[in-house]
Each structure stands twice: as structure tokens, then as C-alpha cells.
Specification:
2 copies of one chain form a homodimer. The first copy, chain A, has 444 residues and is of the alpha/beta class. In chain A, 37% of the residues lie in helices and 14% in strands. In chain A, the strands form 3 sheets. Chain A has an 8-stranded parallel barrel with strand order 1-2-3-4-9-10-11-13, surrounded by 7 helices. The longest helix of chain A is centred in the middle third of the chain and has 20 residues, at 148-167. Chains A and B meet through helix 2, helix 3 and strand 8 of A and helix 2, helix 3 and strand 8 of B. Chains A, B: GO terms for molecular function: monooxygenase activity; oxidoreductase activity, acting on paired donors, with incorporation or reduction of molecular oxygen.
Chain lengths: 444, 444
């Protein structure tokens, strides 16, 4: 396993999102809205990110849609199928898919990630979510979603099962010895015999241990439960942080919690999301930002915001302040995102229309509007001042916004010695400087 | 939709199976056993079958493995990931994956097939199984599998839900009208509000209707429950039939049941499995057959047979006849395959060693040992005498056995006007001459 280079380097993940992260990207003349349903568009994005030696691409996901056609944040494609289609046209970049622990069986999920890891030769990552909101639960036989704490309890047990299944074939257990006829080594494929509160799983998995041992574990929830879960399990963390001070506080807290959980904090990589709105001058960047915001359809944006908040605001007058929101303790969704949005609306006394405009660029992630130099300064500041190990890049329009970032910002960061010139490893774990886990069943 | 050509044509499906269907394929000098774990091997097979204008490739599947490393019939790769990897390197051939209704949620399954159908531009098919045996159930929180009849009851409701989800977006519901900001057409995306005995699913699906409307529905169970299910749902049927008379009886029965269910029997394509053991002379073919059988490891083969039968025969003396088997009413597995094997063992008074030898070639499917002309005659006979609409091709070794079939048998069948020279359609449904279903929610 190659070690992390002596000098700490930035990690970049491309956050895939249709034709762009801005709410109105699909209406902007620089995009082709039909591309969100065309696998070739995503293949082009993955190849462009790979050409720039990004660590990974990442697909968000949900298991719901609204019958008014408002997709919210939901991707058109299902993650395993889309990521495999990206694996087929790339060779180095990591492929991170979101799958909920709430609506899948651990055996199926362990298998699909192991299979993707084999097919991609060690490039699979799992962004672990517990899924917020009742709408998803209603697609799976429940009238309402499980409580936030129960979801995390289930998630922790889910991880115990999945990682045991990934280890159930020891490395090298597949012999394929033609002469003797021995297919697998006796005693090196294991039942896991998990019996827990939420799951009973015998094992073994029906696929040998995958190139990375365990696909990379990624997490994105920033609530108290979410941070505790990340400290225990996550190797990369995607997060939304608006200010440097908030970013530093989150970074320090998560590294501290990881250490308290007995882990090396350097092996938990923290990547805040950033929406780069670029122009050759600051004024040009501002004009693009305003041009995008003017295209927001408030009705659609309110539907998206309702999904994100877990509070139905459809029908509320656009030019009035938000109605009183329930206390966060009653929110059974993405608690930390709820608080971020609530605080923003209260602090700046925003009407609903103003709020959806403010969130249209990045759904709570920081939006940096400026020149490539200004964005590079911003990235360097966060990276060197204890707020980030890298960034989750969220271009407002795709593919154009990615091309801009790669052509205009990456060279500046390379010139400053902050970002690699090319890949030094071949697996996703190697890109992030993370070790390959040993199997738990292997004889000492 | 192109119509079926005026003259009825054969349909060919390549049944993917590691490095070959013969039990000992991995020990034969013509194979590379490590290829079973290499996606490039499967990509090469799919491209070769596509070059020969086969209708489809098909991947069997199970959700279990044995800790002694005996995989039985289980594929190394998970179907959605493997088939997407094949979609990425082909453009016309259909991609059929096995997924059980017993251990998946209908929302997840509907989504993954719809996503594969979009990615492949209309080439996805679902081989519907209910999964036999307790071992799989033990990976999903149950000590034993559900009863055969309950499994089929659940499967029928599962199909109701999945097809409704596939229809939940009407064709053309995705507007993407930039000028107006209308993303989807009002009233053309539907909740399905399914409330049944096994499932409650609100919908809609979070992906627009796929190129085929419904991915092709395939089925392979030949028990009474299985046939009734196929008559209601299946558009292609994979089956194991040993003799022409048995094949004709099955064909006639299933077509009759489909008609009784109100369907056009011509739209239920029946494809028996056949293992082509080819030689330039019959003696050469026999020599290959014997060479393969001599490589069978009886212990491993008994494990596979135990899985297929649903009766544990491991430890039974190899050179004695089978122990008394339970009545089929007590078999909660693949009932029709159990009867086929039991009858074969009784009819020919086989020891366990002889039985595993007899089954080693095709697990109950017909094994045709002979010259390309002889196999072409066999295929023509079944096709023209009411036993088959095509064949599920199961080469004993892969890729070599597929190459032999394509190079030696396909040209004979083309010369006889029985098999197409090239594709006439672009979707899997078009290859099989099947219509694209209308959506149930579309206004008249």
C-alpha cells in the first residue's frame, strides 16, 4: 500500500448531480437538461475528473420521488448500475455510491459493493446514509420512518454485518487448484453467524474478498448521532459548512471523536462541499451567479426545500417569512441540515422566496463566487487552517463547471504544491492514503 | 416496434456460467479458472454472443454460499453490477439477470432494472425466481425458507408492485421545459398506493419510464406453481427438458395455460437449455465429453447436487444407490428439477457417483454430444416440432464452447433459414418479437 506522500495533499471528490448542483442548472443555456438521463453524460464527467486525478466521484441517492414530478435531490440513475457504467470507462478514479441502511438488506448491499469493487479493481466506496423522511419509508411498507436514534442503531449493526460478510472469505481462500480439484481452501471461508437486534445473517458472502478488502466507508450526516457514527466508521466525511470557523469546529470535533473511538484521526478525511461559481473577474462570476438564481422556479424549489427540511412548505406564501418551524427534536430527517437552514433564515430574516434563492446554489453548502485565484485561496485556507482535508466539488452546471474547475483552479493548486500531478496508487483507498483492512477471520 | 419476421426464427440466449457449464470446466485445459472472477471474461463472452446476433445473455444467481467454499451454481458476480459492465461494452444484445422475489424489496428491484434498462437503452430482462432452500433464507433473518406456495403468492404480488412502479411515470411525463420551468407534466407521475398482503408501496418510482416500458420478464420454474406463474407473467421461459416428448408436452402445456390466462401464446417464448458438446466427428465429441467427466471431483459435485435437490447427500457412499428421497410434496426447493433428477436416478438405477457424472454436464439440461450438423438437426427438430422457440445455450467450457457453437453451428442454422443474419431491432423486446407494454396510467 503506497503511503500518503510526505507533504499533505488535497483530496478532491466530484459530487455528481444531474446537469449541475444549482437548482436551476437544467434551465441554464450552458447545460443540456436531457443529459441528466444519459449515461454518456456521467461517463464523460467521470473521465474528466479522472484526467484531473480526482480521488473519486460520488453519487447521492434517495429511494423516493414525488408524484408532482419534483425529484428533489434524487438522481435519475440507481447508484450500483450507474457506478458500474462509470467503472467500465475509467481505470483509476474511485466510485462512491450512496445507499441507505434503512431500506436494504445487508447481504444484498455487501454483495453489490463487493461486486463493484471486483469489477472496478478496487475503486468502490459506500456513502452510508440512514434516510430521512416518511416518503421513503412509505415505499417500503412503513407508514412513517424510524426514529433518528433507531436509524443510527440499525446502521451500526448493519455495518457490523456488512464488514463481517466482506471478511467472510479470507484473502487467498479461493484456490482454484486444478490438479487437486480444490476450489477453496478448507477452513478459510466462514459463516458469520450474526444474531442481533435488527439482523440475523449466517453468511458467508457468495463472492471472494474484494480488492480493497472493504470498500471505502464514507458518511455525510453531521448531527450528534451522525458524528458519533462517522467517528466509529467513516474513512471520508462529506459535510456542509458555511464559514471557516464552523468548518474548523466540525473538523476538530470529528477528529477528536475519532481519536476517542480509538482510531487514527488522520485516517478520517474531511471534505466540505463547495460550489465553485467561477468567472475571469469577480464581476463576471457574480453575473453568472445572478443569472442562475434568476432561473429558479420558486414552486419547484419550495418542493425541494420541503424534502430537505422534512417540513412541508408547499403552498406557503413566497414573500412572507417562514412559518414557525418545529423544534429540531421533532425533526426525524437530516437534523444538522435542518438547523443550518433554520439558522440561516432566522439570522438574515429571509422570506421563503429569498431562502430558496439563497439555497439554490448549494442546498446549504458553501457557494464561492469569484475568480480561480480566489477559489484556490479559499481552498488553501480551509486546507491549511484545519477545516478540510479536501473538498467535495459541486459545480453549479455540468459538465461546464467541472471543466472550468479542472482547467482554471487545479493548475493553481498544483503550482502551490497542494494537489497531486497524477495518481500514485490504483485503488480508492490508496488515493485517500488509507490502508487495506485485514480480514477479521485470518489466522494470526 | 418491428414485427417478428414472417418466417419464424430461432431465439438464442447465452447462459453465462463462470468458465463453463460442465461441473469440471474449471479443471479443463481449455479454460482459465481465474477468468470466472474477471469481468473482462464476461465482457468477451457478451461481445462474442452479440457478434453472432444472439438475443440475449443471461446470468443465474443465488443469495447464498457454503462455508466449505462449494459455490454450487452461484455466480461470482452480482447480476446488476455485472450486467451493467456488459451493457457498457455492447450495443444490441439483451441482458437478463436473475433476482429473487424472496429477498429483495420491490422498490429497489424495480429501480435497478429500470436503471439498467435506461443505461443499456432498452436491453434489460428480469429472470424471476422465488429462491429455494433454507440457506438463502438464513442470510435474511429467517431460519427457514417460506413454503413453495407462499413464495409464489409473494412473487405474484411482487410483480403487481414492480410493474405498477415501472408505469408510475407515464411515457413523456418528463418535460424538461426550460422556458416554463416545468420539469414534469402535471398529473402524469403517479403514486401507485399498493396495499397488499406482502407489500405496501406508495410510489412513484424515482426514475422515468424506461425504454422498454417493462424490462423483459423471464421465468424458469417448471413446477405447477411455476408454470401457472409463467403463464401469467413470463415472456420468455428457460426450462430443462430431457427428451423431445417431454419438451413437446411442456411447450404445449405452457402455451395452453398462457392462452387460458388470456395471453397470446406466441408471446411466450420457450427456450430449453442445451449443452453442446461438439467435435468434428461424433467420436471426437464423445472423447471431449469423457475427458470432462473424468475431471469431476465427486465430493464437490455431491455438494452441488445436494443444493440442487434440496436434500443433503454429502457423506453418502459414492458407489451406492441414492438413499430413499422424500416425496416431492416435502421438497421446498426447485420441485420440477427434483423430480427430473429423481426419475433419472430411478430409471437408470444409478449410484451417487454415476448420477453426479450424468448431471455434471448440464445439471438436468439436455447434453447433446455430436457434430455441428447433429446439433443443428437436434435444434431444428425441437424448433419445428413444437418443443422450442429457441434455446438457452450452455457451453460446457467458456469461452471456447461458445466460439465453437458460433463458428460451427450458427452458420448451418442460418443456411437453413432458421436464424437471423443480424439484428433487426435494437431492444431486447424487439429481438424476441415482443411488444412494448403500454403504461397502465396513461390517459386513453
Amino acid at each position: 500500500m503506497p503511503e500518503e506522500p510526505a507533504e499533505r495533499q488535497l483530496h478532491f471528490n466530484l459530487f455528481l448531480m444531474g446537469v449541475g448542483h444549482h437548482e436551476a442548472a437544467w434551465r441554464h443555456p450552458r447545460t443540456d437538461p436531457a443529459a441528466a438521463g444519459d449515461v454518456a453524460h456521467f461517463q464523460r464527467l467521470a473521465r474528466a475528473a479522472e484526467a484531473a486525478s480526482f480521488d473519486s466521484v460520488f453519487l447521492a441517492d434517495g429511494v423516493e420521488a414525488r408524484s408532482d414530478g419534483g425529484w428533489g435531490l434524487i438522481s435519475h440513475f440507481e447508484p450500483f448500475t450507474l457506478l458500474t457504467a462509470l467503472a467500465a470507462v475509467t481505470t483509476r478514479i474511485g466510485l462512491i455510491g450512496t445507499v441507505s441502511t434503512g431500506f436494504s438488506e445487508p447481504y444484498n448491499l455487501a454483495r453489490q459493493f463487493a461486486s463493484l469493487d471486483h469489477i472496478s479493481r478496487g475503486r468502490a466506496g459506500w456513502n452510508i446514509v440512514t434516510s430521512a423522511g416518511d416518503r421513503a419509508a412509505q415505499n417500503f411498507g412503513r407508514s412513517a420512518n424510524q426514529d433518528h436514534a433507531v436509524r443510527y442503531e440499525r446502521a451500526a449493526e448493519f455495518l457490523d454485518v456488512v464488514t463481517a460478510l466482506w471478511d467472510s472469505w479470507e484473502d487467498g481462500a479461493l484456490l482454484l487448484d486444478r490438479a487437486s480439484g480444490a476450489f477453496a481452501a478448507p477452513g478459510r471461508v466462514h459463516d458469520i453467524d450474526h444474531v442481533g437486534k435488527h439482523f440475523q445473517v449466517r453468511g458467508p458472502l457468495n463472492i471472494p474478498r474484494s480488492p480493497q478488502g472493504h470498500p471505502l466507508l464514507v458518511q455525510a450526516g453531521s448531527s450528534d448521532n451522525g458524528r458519533a457514527f462517522a467517528a466509529r466508521w467513516a474513512e471520508a466525511v462529506f459535510t456542509a459548512q458555511q464559514t471557516l470557523a464552523e468548518g474548523q469546529a466540525f473538523y476538530a470535533d470529528l477528529k477528536r471523536q475519532a481519536a476517542a473511538a480509538g482510531r487514527d484521526p488522520a485516517r478520517v478525511k474531511i471534505l466540505p462541499g463547495v460550489v465553485p461559481v467561477l468567472g475571469s473577474t469577480e464581476a463576471e462570476a457574480r453575473a453568472l451567479d445572478e443569472e442562475l438564481d434568476a432561473l429558479i422556479s420558486p414552486a419547484r424549489a419550495v418542493g425541494v426545500l420541503s424534502t430537505v427540511l422534512g417540513v412541508d412548505l408547499t403552498g406557503h406564501p413566497l414573500d412572507e417569512p417562514l412559518p414557525p418551524l418545529p423544534p429540531v427534536t421533532e425533526i426525524n430527517g437530516a437534523k444538522s441540515r435542518f438547523e443550518l437552514i433554520r439558522d440561516l433564515a432566522e439570522r438574515d430574516r429571509l422570506t421563503l422566496r429569498q431562502l430558496v434563492g439563497r439555497l439554490g446554489g448549494g442546498r446549504g453548502h458553501q457557494v464561492v463566487v469569484g475568480t480561480p485565484e480566489q477559489l484556490a485561496d479559499h481552498i488553501e485556507t480551509w486546507f491549511t487552517r484545519g477545516a478540510a482535508d479536501g473538498f467535495n466539488i459541486m459545480p453549479p452546471v455540468l459538465p461546464g463547471g467541472l471543466d472550468d474547475f479542472v482547467e482554471q483552479v487545479v493548475p493553481i493548486l498544483r503550482a502551490r504544491g497542494l494537489f497531486r500531478e497524477g495518481y500514485t496508487g490504483s485503488t480508492l483507498r490508496e488515493h485517500y492514503g488509507l490502508p487495506r483492512p485485514a480480514g477479521r477471520y485470518a489466522a494470526a
